[in-house]
Amino acid sequence: LDQLGMEAFGPGGQSAFGFVVPGRVPVYSEQFTQIEALKWSCDVENSQQIRDVVVFLTQPLAAPGCGVGCFITGPPFDKWHFVGTLSNESPSGVFRVRWPPDEGAPTACRIGVSIMSIAELQALEATLPGTELVDFGRKVANDLWNYLGSFEIMLTHGAMLLPLFNRWMARFEDRCKHDPFWWLKNSE
Fold this sequence. Notes:
Layout: E1 17-20, E2 27-28, E3 33-36, E4 39-45, E5 52-57, E6 66-73, E7 81-86, E8 92-96, E9 108-117, H1 118-125, H2 131-148, H3 152-178
Antiparallel strand pairs: 1-2, 1-5, 3-4, 4-9, 5-8, 6-7, 6-9
Helix pairs in contact: 2-3
GO molecular function: nuclear import signal receptor activity
Organism: Hemiselmis andersenii
Domain Hikeshi-like N-terminal: 29-98
C-alpha cells in the first residue's frame, strides 16, 4: 500500500480528492502537500469560523480494501483529529469540526487525508464524537428519571418502568448510531 501513493486514486491521480469549507472556494489535491507516502495536508487560513468541512473524492480509489481518513489539526499542527471517512461507496462527506475544549478554535488549521485500510478506518469511526448526542440523551433521560423518582408513582411502579426506560435508552442510542440527525427531521 505504501508504494501506491497518488496511484491509489487511479490512473494519473490528478484532482483525486479535495475539500470545501462552506462559503469558500473548493481546494483540490494539487494544492495539498504530500507529507508521507499515503498522507497529504493543506493549510486553511481564518479557520476559527469553520464548523463543517466537505471532503470528497473526484475519482474512485484503485486500492481495494482501502478508504480515506479525513483529519484536521490546529497549530502547532502535531495533534490530528479524525473527522470522517471516504470510500468508493461513500465518496464525499460533510464532517463536523469539533475542537477539543482545551484547544479552542484556532485561527489557522490543516486538513489532512490519509489512505488507510477499511479496518483502521472503522476503528477510528468508533472514536468519533457522534456519542455526544447519546451522552446528551442519557443525561436528559437520567434527569427525567430522577425527576419522576420524586413522585409517589415511581415508588410503587418504578421497578416496572425501569425496563421500559432501558429499552427507550437502547432505542435512542441505536437511532443516534444510524442517523445522528434524526431528531432534526420533522416526524409529525
